[in-house]
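User: I'll paste a sequence; please echo it back and then give the predicted structure.

Assistant: Echoing your sequence first, then the prediction.
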Amino acid sequence: MRSLLSFMKKEYLETVRTGKLIILMLLFVLFGIMSPAIAKLTPWMMEMLSDTMAENGLIVTNIQVDAMTSWTQFFKNIPMALIAFILIFSDIFTKEYKSGTLLLVLTKGLSRYKIVLAKTVLLLSLWTVGYGLCFAITYGYNAYFWDNSIANHLFSSVAVWWLFGIWVICLIILFSSLLQNNTGVVLCIGVSVLLAYLLSIIPKAKVYSPAVLMNANSLLLGTEGMNAYIKAVIVAVAMCIVCVAVSIPVINKKQL
């Protein structure tokens, strides 16, 4: 256990030393501020453009914004934060293969499965903290300017999108352990998400696709209840477990 904790400490310090942690947290703060800021500025921007639009025959009426406008924007922004997360940490194992640093760790007695678990915990904790920070900032601004109670199932909506991010992170662990370069990791993750999205288009298969978890706005608007997401949640959790479980024998057999 001591060796595992020491390795995890090294991993966290590495994210700080390389600047990844600072970049990531700044992005989450930025996206947290952007959602209420865009909502707040929308009427002003439309007023500025009203003359130009009127010349083209378009009439701009008074635009009312509220917390729902901001939360809708939040779920439009958070995919960009997840993409940035993927690009930053897609090399979680591939960089180790290139540098050979894992071999040094293994010679000190750390088991390979502990390496997988440590890196998984690292990414899950960073995503959770960053996502939570982004949510807290948006929630605070929305509470100040408007009223968050207008949003239906707000915390459930946030939770299902958080789980989608967890699913993607487990894909990072799997593909980064399998492949030798992070470009391949990013492509494989993109293909996996695309396949999940295509599956969500099929009516009978839709409820099983992890991509359904991205559609948090349906919960937010009250058009869907949490029951509509249960099967997708179960599938996503099962796939997360499988991804990490498969990564362990892959690392065990890897020539370092």
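The mean pLDDT is 87. The CA atoms of residues 194 and 211 lie 9 Å apart.
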